[in-house]
Amino acid sequence: MAAYNHHKTGVYRFCCRMLNDREGAKDVVQDVFIKFFQNVNRFDGETSVKVWLYKSARNKCLNMIRDRGKIRNLGGDGDELQELLSSDPEYSDSPQMLRKLLDDLPADYREVLVMREWNGLSYAEIAEALDTTVSAVKSRLFKARKMASEIYKKLYGDV
Q1: Which CATH class for the 2-156 domain?
Q2: Assessment of whether the complete model's pTM goes beyond 0.90
């Protein structure tokens, strides 16, 4: 139960930002934790609980994205993500801007940016969750930040 209490909010926010769908995010979080608790006795400890949860959530989110047939601009009008971002004091001043930036990023850039910037995962944790190397994570994160900056400039001009 400690794993749930400790990680539920971060995993939920990750899923919301990936899916732009609050109800879908709740479903993913529920599925991830049910799977975790059903298999906790077989958990080998080689991977941290945090990484395992994010990896599982990522895979479920990508499956939902694929099943919906939409990679970009997921979900209706984005009101759910806007509400989530508005409730986050760190980002309450600009929820529409953040929603638009995240919507316009490809899913592979969005996931690495969200894992690092909003959920605070280390490069090593992200690499493990994505089954890749730390250098690949750093490269993808650099490209994601650059693309986000370009999207920002296109939408809002130089500031």
Answers
A1: mainly alpha
A2: no
